[in-house]
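Q: I'm writing up a methods section and want to include an example of the input and output format. Could you take the sequence below and give the corresponding predicted structure tokens, formatted cleanly so I can copy it straight into the document?
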Amino acid sequence: MKKIDPTIIKETLYVLVCVVILSAVMQSVFLIIHKWDYTVLLGNLLTGFAVTLNFFLMGLGVQKSLGKEEKEAKKVIRLSQIYRYLLLIAVLVIGVVFSCFNNWTVFIPVIFPRIAIAIRPLFNKKSDKMQQTTTSTEAPLEQDNQDQQEDQE
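A: Here is the clean output for your methods example:
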């Protein structure tokens, strides 16, 4: 079995953190509107786990398709997508059929990874700006150091 690419682990952890944060917000909303009970938590846990697993499996599918010819890579990606959708559908059906899960909290977390992916560039831009700022402040310092060295010579 191939080793899991560190990028897949890093991005899955990012999605997991976002899912946990958004789940906490959703739990808070249910508390505020006085509709919270154990079914809210169970539904959230069920789907939160499923969507994070779905994202991880998507990464593994992409990793598996790398290095293959285009036609075979498309087949691997498509097959991965079908299995992941079937998994999500099964989880949603379980969440609706059993009364121990709140229906709203079964369906709402499905969009959490999309929100996480949508806000990801906001965090990347911050690190890019910090990197540019660091580089732009280092460049004059390096120039000053070169000027000082030339003056000493």
